[in-house]
Amino acid sequence: MPRPYDLSSITALICFEAAARNASFKKAAQEMNVTPAAVSHQIKALETDLGCNLFLRRSRGVELTEKGAFLFIAIRRGFETISEAVTQIRDRQETVDVTIRTTTAVSSLWLTPKISAFWKIHPAITVSQIISDVPGMTGRCDLSIHYGNPPENDGEYRKLFRDRIVALGTPAFAAEHGIIHVGDLLKAPLIHTSNEETDWTTWSDWFLALGRPAPKGRSFYVNNYMIGLQAAQDDVGAVLGWDGLVENLIREGRLVQLVAETIPSPAAFHLKVHPRATSRARLFADWLVKSA
C-alpha cells in the first residue's frame, strides 16, 4: 500500500534535527547517546534520499545550507506540534509540581541554571520545562516566559528583566577585522537571526538606534538564535546579544562585547502565571521574579 506521508527515515530526521539544533554532529550524538559516526551516517543517508546537501562541513562544526535550514524549520514545527499533543495527553501532575514553557534560547541561556539554583533551596519541588519556539502555543503549563509587552486583559504577567543589546564576537574576530569603534562593525561580517515569528531587534534596528546607517558588510542568516551564538563563537561574524541572556557566555569568555555602545531592549521578558498554577508553581514564580 502507498504510504500516506512522503517522509524519509524518521531516525534520520531525528538525527538531523538534533544536529541542526546543536550545530554539531558530536553534540547531537551525545544528546542521543550514540556515536558521531552513527549521526553522520544517518544524515548522509538523508542527504542521499533528498538529493541535496543539508550541511556544510566545517573544521570546527557544521552549518546548515539553505535547504537544510528550510527542512529544519519544518521538522522543528512538526516536532513541537507532536510534543504539544503528548504533553496535553500526559497526566504529569503526579510527578511534576511546576511546568514552565519557554523558548530554546531562554531555556538554555537563562532558565535552566535558575531551576538548578531553585532545586538547591526547594529539592522537594519538581520543575519541568516545555521548550518551544512557536509563539502562542502554551498548552498545559503553569507558567510561561514571553518576550515583549504583555497584551491587555490576558491574565497575570510579572516582569522578569529587560536587557541591553550589545554587539558580541570573539577576541580573534575583533582582531581580524580591526573592530574598536562601532563604525568598524558597519563593514564587518554580521550574523542575522531570520525568524519572522519573533520580534527580535535586528542589526539595522541596532545601528539606527545609535544614529548609524545600515551595515554594508557580509551577512550570514540563521533561523535559530542558539545557532547564531554558536556561529559567533566559531568566528563567523558578530552577533547581537541580550546581555541578561548571554551573561554566562560573556563571563566564561566565549564571547566578548566588541564595542562600548549598547541600546536598551525595546521590550522586557515577562513571566505569565496561568490560571491553573498551583501554590507550588506560584512559589517558584515568586522566587524566579526575585532572582531575576
UniProtKB/TrEMBL annotation:
InterPro entries given in the database record: LysR-type_TF_proteobact-type, LysR_HTH_N, LysR_subst-bd, WH-like_DNA-bd_sf, WH_DNA-bd_sf
Residue ranges of every copy of the HTH lysR-type domain listed in the record: 10-65
Record carries keyword Transport: no
Keyword hit for Transcription regulation: yes
Keywords (A to Z) from UniProt: DNA-binding, Plasmid, Transcription, Transcription regulation
One Pfam family hit: HTH_1
MF-aspect GO terms: DNA binding; DNA-binding transcription factor activity
Annotated family: Belongs to the LysR transcriptional regulatory family.
The name this protein goes by in its record: LysR family transcriptional regulator
